[in-house]
Design brief:
Length: about 210
């Protein structure tokens, strides 16, 4: 049984009980748990950025574009990369700010507001990442079909081209689906616990 449930059980005991748990003690427990959850959201988002940075270093996109005579797209992709890192950096800063706000002792109402704000921020972060994955993969397919001679040859045969498009679409759905499951598993569990804390705080605030 969770520590919070034990506290609530003690709280509901007879009023004459020697050790009665107050609302403030339950609030402190929820505050501590919420702060820990938001800290993990911050840590995971930073680790995710480091992982993607490590993967990008393994693949040299510039060399590939030069090989297929697509030098014109190099600057565009660099701009897209900088833009993406800038947006992710903003999200991480917001996560850090949310963590600092929740870590500070505040009123029950303020803690509830901070929890809802953090929950929305994480949801926006997940949808942004999924959107960038879809956009990046579609751009990759377009560049491959338009620049790579071997891939471009597939467009000459209607049946082969249609089959290739279907396979690319299936791969895109599979890849995005796997990432959606990853985000659902990692961030979903944390958000579920955070939202549970919100409901417990709501009971105290009544």
């Amino acid at each position: 049984m969770e520590e919070l449930d034990l506290l609530k059980k003690d709280w509901q005991k007879n009023e004459n009980s020697f050790e009665q748990v107050s609302e403030m003690e339950i609030y402190k427990m929820l505050h501590k748990k919420s702060s820990s959850i938001v800290k993990w959201i911050l840590i995971i988002s930073i680790l995710e950025v480091l992982l993607w940075t490590g993967i990008s270093l393994l693949f040299n996109t510039d060399d590939y574009l030069k090989e297929v005579h697509g030098e014109a797209y190099i600057e565009y992709l660099k701009f897209l990369t900088v833009f993406n890192y800038a947006v992710v950096a903003v999200f991480i800063l917001i996560f850090y700010k949310n963590y600092k706000n929740i870590s500070t002792i505040t009123s029950t109402k303020q803690l509830m507001k901070d929890i809802l704000k953090t929950r929305k921020t994480v949801q926006y972060y997940v949808w942004y990442n999924l959107g960038m994955i879809v956009f990046s993969m579609i751009m990759g397919f377009i560049l491959a079909f338009s620049l790579n001679p071997k891939v471009h040859e597939l467009t000459l045969n209607t049946k082969v081209f249609t089959l290739t498009i279907l396979l690319c679409g299936a791969f895109l759905l599979l890849f995005v689906g796997l990432f959606w499951l990853f985000y659902r598993l990692i961030y979903g569990i944390l958000l579920k616990k955070l939202y549970k804390n919100y409901h417990e705080l709501k009971k105290i605030d009544l």
